[in-house]
Each structure stands twice: as structure tokens, then as C-alpha cells.
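Entry 14. Ran structure prediction on the chain below.
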Amino acid sequence: MQRFTISLDDDLAKEFDAFIAAKAYANRSEAVRDLIRARLGDAVLAEAGAQRRTARARVAACVANVSYVYDHHEQTVTSRVLDLQHDHHDLVVTSLHTHLDHHHCMETAVLRGPTAAVQALAEQLVAQRGVRHGNIHLVPLAAGQAHRHGKGDQAPHRHFSPLT
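Output, C-alpha cells:
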């Protein structure tokens, strides 16, 4: 663990303390760590996007939480959302369907895979006609070394961990 000191003007410190209280952080350090992780993650995702655009892309992986609300009586939106998830079953880890009232449902899908593909699917899901209140949260992942657990015929695999 490393320590560092920062200086804030009084107004910014007051705003930050209000933010900490509103988000129920235990202390300033935890809030700063969270903000740093978020900004570093955003930078990694932006870099991956820039590399894709310049055709020098290395495949960066991410995990995403995509949530959206829709009226389930609009059968076409229900069908389109399900078709998209089935068409991209390699990216969809799981989905949760929650009934909000007699008409509205919230769907939460967890996606994992190459950043470009995950981001494209997430954007397609929330952009569907009839989808309301869509939100996408992407977390960049680092791939570990290929390895095996135990002995036998088990195939080597990699674990993906959030960037720290």
C-alpha cells in the first residue's frame, strides 16, 4: 500500500465530502481509489477504441453490465432483444428479467468478450426501439497466463481479471 497527499481547495473538498457521504463511502481513501479505478478503466477502453480505429487493434477484453427498461406488451421489442441475445450467445454470460409493474420490465445482461464486440452488442440492446432507460457499464479485463487446474485431460484456460 502506498500513501500520497493531495491538496484541495475548500470548496472542492466540501463537494468531495458531500459525494462521499451521498455514496456511503467509508472514507476519502476508498472514494479516491474508486475514482482512480474508474478513470484508469475509461482510459484503457478509450485506448482500445483508438487502436481499433487505426487497425492496429489488439483484442482487449471486457465485461459489461447492460440494463434497460421496456414495455413487455410491445412484443416486437421483446422479440428483438431476445433475438439479439441469442445471436450473440458467445458474449452473453447471463441475463436477469425483472417485472417492475403490469407493463414494464427491466432486463440486466452481463456480457463478456472482446471489447469491440461487447460494446457493439450493448449499444444495440439499449438502442432498440421501445427500450427506455438503457445504461451500459464496461469494465476492462486483463487476461492471465494460460494454465490448468489439477491433473488429467483438462484443457488449458485463462482467467480474466478486472484491471486494478
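Residues 28-53 form the longest helix (26 residues). Will compare against last week's run tomorrow.
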